[in-house]
Specification:
This protein is an alpha+beta fold. The protein contains 26 helices and nine strands. Helix content is about 55%, strand content about 5%.
C-alpha cells in the first residue's frame, strides 16, 4: 500500500524569494509551529555549547542569526499578505500564530543561558577579535535582553510574557477592526449631479468602484482614493459632512456603525498593559521605556522639543486659519467653518491664491513616468540602475518586482504595490522581506516590500497620481533605500535594523525634496498625452504653494505627537473618556482647526495602537529636523551633486544601525543638526 507524498510546505522551503503562488492560509500555522520548535531545539543546543566552550562569533552569534533569519523569512510574506491581501482564512491563520511568536520572542529574550553566552562573548578573549559592527551587535543584544526582562524573578518573567502576548493580540485586533470598519461603510450615488465639483478623474474612480461591485452609478468608500476627492472637491456640504462623519468615527462608539467595531476597549487594555510592562522593567512610564532605544534622552526633552515647535508654529497657524475663515465667508458663503469644510475651503483658497490644484497636476504624473523618474533620481544620486524581473512570482496582478543594479550586478530587490484595493489596509509603508546579511553560502541580498494606496488606473489609461501621492512614493522609497543600500552584513544592524526609531524617517523625508525641485521634477513629470515636462508657470505656482498652510500642517503633526507622548507619559490605565479628555486638552493648546464632538481620531490611530510608533510619533518631526538639515547640504552643493550624494549614501544609507544616528549625521554634515532649515523649508519664522 502506498501513500501519496504530501506537498512540501512552501514556507519551510529554502527560496531566494517568497513563492507567493504556492502559499496558502493553511500553510501558515503548521510552518510557523515547526520553525518555532526547531528553533527552540537549536537555541538550546547553542546555549549548552556555550557553557562548555568559550563562545565566538563563528560558533555562537552567526548560527543564532541564521536560526532567526529562517523564521523571519517565513513570517515576512505572511505578515505582508495579511496587510495587503487580507482574507478571513489568512486572518485566522495569522492570529493563530501571533501568540506563539510572542511567546517564543519572550522565551528567547528571557533565556538566561543565551544571555550568559552573549555576556561571555563580550567578556571573553574573542571580544578583541570582533569588528566594530559585531561589538555593536553584542552590546545591542545585551541591552535588549535586559529590556526583555532577563533579570526579572520568575513570576515577573511569566507576567512579562503574558503581557507581551496579549499586547500582540490586541494590536492585531485593533488593526483588523479598523480595516473592517473602513470597509463596512459606503455610499452609492446614482446621479452625478450630487457629486458636483468632484473632478472627472475622481468620478471615474468612484464609478469603477461601483462597477467592481456590480452597482450602477458611483460608490464612495472610506479608502483614501474615494474619500479624499469628495472631501476636497464636492460642493455639497451635506455629502461632505456624511462622508467625514463616517471616516472620523471608524471603529468607535459614534457614527453610522457605532459600536460595531469599537476599538475603545482595545485601547484601554493596550495602554494599561504597556504601563504594566514598563513598571515590570523598572521604568516610571511606558514613554521612558520607549525612549530607552531612541535618540531622545527623555520624555521631558521630547516635550520641550515639541513645545518649542508649537511656540513657533501656532501663531502662524492661527493666522492661516483666520485667512481661511475669511475666504470661506466672502467667497464660499460659509459663515462658520465646520470640520468637513476645511479640506474643501483650503483647496478653493489654494486655487484662488496660487492658481494650482492637485487635479491640474495629475496629468503630469502618470504612474509609469513617476516610477521611471524615481529610478532616474536614484541613478543620478548614487550611480545605480533598475531592472524589472517579470519572472518573479508576485501576490497580485498589480504588483511588480524590480532589482537594483550596481555596475550591472544586483545588490537588492523590491516588490512595488501601488494601488488601493479591497482587503488591503490603508496607508503607505515599507517592510523587510529579506535583510542583507552574510551567510554560510555567501551574501544574502536585501529585499523590500513597498506598499501604497494610490488611485488605481481606470480603463486603458495609466493611473494619474496627485503630487501628494508622488511625494508619498518618494518617502516610502527613501525607507526602501535605507533598507536596500546598506553595506552591513549582520542582520541586527543591517538596513533599518538597529536604527533609533526617531531617526528612521531621515532617509524617507529626505527623498521628498526631489518632488519639489526643478531638477527632480524634470525627471518625474511628463504630461500623459503630450510627454511635455511641467511648464515653468505651473512649476512656479507649485513652488509658491509649497508652504500653503504649512503651519497648520505642522501643528496637526504636533497635536498627534503631543497626544501620543502624553498618553504614554501621564496615564497608568486611562479609560476611553480619559483618552478623549487628553486629546481635547492637547487640541486646546495647539490645534487651530475645529473638531466635531463625535470625532474619534484615536480609534483609528494605528501608528501608535497597531504600529511601532507608541510614545514615538514625535519621530516624524524629530527626524524632519535631520532631513531638512541634510537636504540643505544639497541646496549648498547642487541637487545632484555627485560628492554630496556619495557622502549621503556612505555616511547615512550604508551604515544602517552600525553607529548612533547622531554620530552618523555629524559625519555627513560636519556638525550637530539645526532646526533652522526645517523652519525655513516650512516657511515658519525661526525667531
Amino acid at each position: 500500500m502506498s501513500t501519496a507524498r504530501q506537498p512540501a510546505n512552501p514556507l519551510l522551503e529554502t527560496h531566494t524569494l517568497p513563492p507567493f503562488s504556492e502559499i496558502r492560509a493553511e500553510h501558515v500555522e503548521p510552518a510557523i509551529t515547526t520553525l518555532l520548535d526547531e528553533n527552540r531545539d537549536a537555541i538550546e543546543a547553542l546555549a549548552q555549547q556555550a557553557q562548555t566552550s568559550e563562545p565566538s562569533w563563528e560558533s555562537f552569534a552567526a548560527p543564532l542569526e541564521a536560526i532567526d533569519d529562517r523564521l523571519v523569512q517565513a513570517w515576512a510574506p505572511v505578515s505582508h499578505l495579511n496587510g495587503t491581501m487580507n482574507t478571513p482564512e489568512l486572518r485566522e491563520a495569522y492570529q493563530a500564530c501571533i501568540a506563539k511568536l510572542s511567546a517564543f520572542s519572550t522565551w528567547v529574550g528571557q533565556h538566561e543561558g543565551l544571555f550568559n553566552a552573549w555576556q561571555a562573548l563580550k567578556d571573553g578573549s574573542a571580544w578583541a577579535t570582533l569588528s566594530a559592527e559585531q561589538r555593536r551587535t553584542v552590546d545591542n543584544t545585551l541591552r535588549d535582553f535586559r529590556l526583555a526582562g532577563v533579570a526579572l524573578p520568575e513570576a515577573q518573567k511569566a507576567r512579562y510574557g503574558e503581557v507581551q502576548a496579549r499586547l500582540s493580540e490586541l494590536s492585531n485586533q485593533y488593526s483588523n477592526q479598523l480595516l473592517d470598519a473602513t470597509q463596512a461603510w459606503h455610499k452609492d450615488i446614482a446621479n452625478a449631479d450630487e457629486l458636483a465639483g468632484v473632478p472627472p478623474s475622481a468620478l471615474d474612480t468612484l464609478q469603477a468602484t461601483a462597477a467592481a461591485k456590480g452597482v450602477d452609478g458611483y460608490r464612495i468608500t472610506l479608502d483614501f482614493p474615494c474619500f479624499f476627492p469628495v472631501m476636497s472637491y464636492a460642493d455639497s456640504r451635506e455629502l461632505r459632512e456624511e462622508v467625514y462623519t463616517a471616516f472620523v468615527t471608524r471603529a468607535s462608539d459614534q457614527g453610522p456603525n457605532a459600536g460595531e467595531f469599537d476599538n475603545a476597549p482595545m485601547m484601554e487594555e493596550i495602554l494599561a498593559l504597556r504601563h504594566e510592562l514598563a513598571t515590570l522593567l523598572g521604568f516610571t512610564t511606558y514613554a521612558d521605556l520607549s525612549l530607552a532605544t531612541k535618540m531622545a534622552d527623555s520624555p521631558t526633552q521630547v516635550l520641550a522639543f515639541l513645545d518649542d515647535l508649537a511656540r513657533r508654529a501656532v501663531p502662524q497657524a492661527q493666522l492661516e486659519f483666520a485667512e481661511l475663515e475669511e475666504f470661506a465667508q466672502q467667497k464660499l458663503g460659509i459663515k462658520t467653518l465646520s470640520p468637513w469644510d476645511i479640506g474643501y475651503a483650503s483647496e478653493k483658497l489654494r486655487e484662488a491664491r496660487h492658481d494650482i490644484s492637485e487635479e491640474q497636476l495629475r496629468p503630469y504624473f502618470p504612474a509609469p513616468q513617476v516610477i521611471s523618474g524615481l529610478f532616474q533620481v536614484v541613478e543620478r544620486l548614487y550611480g545605480l540602475s533598475f531592472a524589472e524581473a517579470t519572472q518573479v512570482p508576485c501576490y497580485h496582478a498589480d504588483v511588480r518586482y524590480f532589482q537594483i543594479l550596481e555596475n550591472g550586478a544586483p545588490i537588492a530587490g523590491f516588490y512595488l504595490d501601488l494601488y488601493a484595493r479591497e482587503g488591503k489596509r490603508g496607508g503607505a509603508w515599507m517592510a523587510d522581506c529579506r535583510v542583507r546579511r552574510q551567510t554560510e553560502n555567501g551574501l544574502q541580498l536585501p529585499v523590500a516590500f513597498l506598499t501604497c494606496n494610490f488611485t488605481p488606473p481606470v480603463g486603458d489609461r495609466p493611473a494619474l497620481l496627485t503630487h501628494d501621492e508622488v511625494t508619498t512614493l518618494f518617502h516610502e522609497f527613501g525607507h526602501g533605500l535605507h533598507h536596500m543600500l546598506t553595506k552591513q552584513s549582520i542582520a541586527d544592524i543591517s538596513g533599518i535594523n538597529g536604527v533609533a526609531w526617531d531617526a528612521v524617517e531621515l532617509p524617507s523625508q529626505f527623498m521628498e525634496n526631489f518632488c519639489w525641485e526643478r531638477e527632480g521634477l524634470d525627471l518625474i513629470a511628463r504630461h500623459v498625452d503630450t510627454g511635455e515636462p511641467l511648464p515653468d508657470a505651473l512649476f512656479e505656482r507649485l513652488q509658491g504653494a509649497k508652504n500653503f498652510q504649512s503651519a497648520m500642517g505642522m501643528v496637526r503633526q504636533l497635536e498627534f505627537s503631543l497626544f501620543d507622548l502624553r498618553l504614554h507619559a501621564e496615564h497608568d490605565a486611562p479609560s476611553a473618556d480619559d483618552i478623549q479628555a487628553l486629546l481635547d486638552d492637547v487640541r486646546m493648546r495647539v490645534a487651530v482647526v475645529p473638531q466635531a464632538a463625535f470625532n474619534r481620531f484615536q480609534n483609528g490611530f494605528g501608528h501608535i495602537f497597531a504600529g511601532g510608533y507608541a510614545a514615538g510619533y514625535y519621530s516624524y518631526k524629530w527626524a524632519e529636523v535631520l532631513s531638512a538639515d541634510a537636504w540643505s547640504a544639497f541646496e549648498e552643493a547642487g541637487t545632484f551633486d555627485a560628492d554630496t550624494g556619495r557622502r549621503f549614501r556612505t555616511e547615512i544609507l550604508e551604515q544602517g544601525g552600525a553607529l548612533d544616528a547622531g554620530e552618523l549625521f555629524k559625519a555627513f554634515r560636519g556638525r550637530a543638526p539645526s532646526v533652522k532649515p526645517l523652519l525655513r523649508h516650512s516657511g515658519i519664522d525661526a525667531a
